[in-house]
């Protein structure tokens, strides 16, 4: 499987904060942001760079810049919670948006909004969604982006289920998945167990 689990003691601590039903919204957002920084750093290891010169106060020396445009595509609305941390790490990144909502009966994604920068074909595109549950929304987002020219796509999430990872690997075997936690399974309603509940509701206080 194209799966990278970004794992360290700080992430383990913050995943525990996210799981705890007593964690308040502001605490949830802070812990989520810290994990997102770690994901951004790990994904950035795959970025190509090119040489450039830079003049220090003392002399001219070798430096670097990113070769490709980076495009962040949060899946609305929960994916918005990851954007700020990624933008802080990659301040010249562009941001698109995909609106997908899950039909609670069929568990299939239904799209209602799309807006993305141009030149996806020469960009590294990072799909942002805190929960990779059934994989339906992530797979639909990847398909949507491919249809609009994207060729280099990465998926970033906080928590993934084995079922979601399997679907992404089956539908989009070239798309690597980065997560902070691979959980046990899905329940009958398509929620991750043990999970952390609805990431969007817990981030935005709409429980």
Report on this structure.
This protein is an alpha/beta fold and 207 residues long. The chain has a single domain (3-49, 64-204), classed as Rossmann fold, CATH 3.40.50.2020. 33% of the residues lie in helices and 32% in strands. The chain contains six helices and 13 strands. Strands 1, 4, 5, 6, 7, 8, 9, 10 and 11 form a nine-stranded mixed β-sheet that branches. Strands 2-3 form a two-stranded antiparallel ribbon. Strand 12 (185-186) and strand 13 (192-193) form a beta hairpin. It is globular. It starts with a strand and ends with a helix. The mean pLDDT is 92.
Summarize the topology.
Elements: E1 3-5, H1 9-19, H2 25-44, E2 49-55, E3 60-66, E4 69-76, H3 80-89, E5 94-95, E6 97-102, E7 109-115, E8 123-128, E9 131-132, H4 136-147, E10 152-160, H5 162-171, E11 177-182, E12 185-186, E13 192-193, H6 199-204
Parallel strand pairs: 1-11, 4-5, 4-6, 4-8, 8-10, 9-10, 10-11
Antiparallel strand pairs: 2-3, 6-7, 12-13
Helix pairs in contact: 1-2, 2-3
Keywords:
single chain; 207 residues; Rossmann fold; nine-stranded mixed sheet; two-stranded antiparallel ribbon; 13 strands; 32% strand
């Amino acid at each position: 499987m194209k799966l990278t689990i970004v794992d360290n003691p700080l992430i383990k601590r913050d995943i525990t904060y996210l799981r705890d039903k007593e964690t308040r919204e502001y605490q949830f957002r802070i812990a989520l942001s810290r994990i997102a920084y770690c994901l951004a750093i790990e994904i950035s290891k795959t970025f190509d760079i090119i040489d450039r010169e830079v003049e220090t106060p003392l002399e001219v020396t070798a430096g670097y810049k990113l070769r490709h445009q980076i495009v962040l595509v949060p899946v609305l609305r929960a994916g918005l919670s990851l954007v700020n941390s990624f933008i802080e790490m990659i301040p010249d990144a562009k941001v698109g948006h995909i609106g997908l909502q899950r039909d609670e009966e069929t568990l299939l994604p239904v799209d209602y909004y799309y807006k993305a920068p141009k030149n996806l074909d020469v960009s590294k595109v990072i799909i942002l969604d805190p929960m990779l549950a059934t994989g339906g929304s992530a797979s639909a987002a990847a398909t949507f982006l491919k249809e609009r020219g994207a060729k280099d796509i990465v998926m970033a999430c906080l928590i993934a289920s084995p079922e979601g990872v399997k679907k992404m690997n089956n539908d989009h075997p070239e798309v690597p998945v980065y997560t902070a936690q691979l959980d046990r399974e899905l329940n009958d309603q398509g929620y991750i167990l043990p999970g952390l509940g609805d990431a969007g509701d817990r981030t935005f206080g709409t429980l």
